[in-house]
Input
Amino acid sequence: MITVIGNLKGGSGKSTVAFNLAIWLAWHKRQVSVLDLDPQKTLTDLIELRREEDYEPGIALLPDDLPLEALREQEGEVLVDVGVANLPAMYAAIAQADRVLIPVVPGQADVWSTQRFLAMIASHRPVRCEVLMFLNRTDALGGSKETREANAAIAMLKSAQALPVRLSQRIWLCRSLSEGLAVFELSPNEKASQEFLELAKVLYPKINTKQPWK
Output
């Protein structure tokens, strides 16, 4: 399955989500590869840090110049991190995608940005491609005015499905990245890990939810 993780607005946390999902899939013995098409190359830096620290499982990073038509030839799960800074690549990746995953930061500007992003990709995604959204970087308790309003707003967007999970802005997510680790590897019992695992379960419901990293 090809999952494109993207957003029109920067700072949505898509590279963090892609990195954690890739490691989670690898821990569950799924063949997984990632393609970093974002010019900032945050996902590439994270994977290279993980290699330098010799952490297992390792993550396969596809070459930047891979023809995007070849994505469907890849075995297993493919995660693509891309933003509008590389617009042609974004459209080409979405044309191959089975689904698009959109992290949405609470705030009116981010909701407007998500609406525009959905309109931009509508004519590029295949009929088979589903579009999913979830709130990311919310307040810890999820009760702020911004989080509540953003949750209600994305639920009204008919061209995508709002997932019933969210990721909060938590220090453990930042700390784990600086170590080259997924948040559930660094601190499996923290709330940040529990929230991420809920997201992973929703995205991959057929995978056994055991925690082999413990």
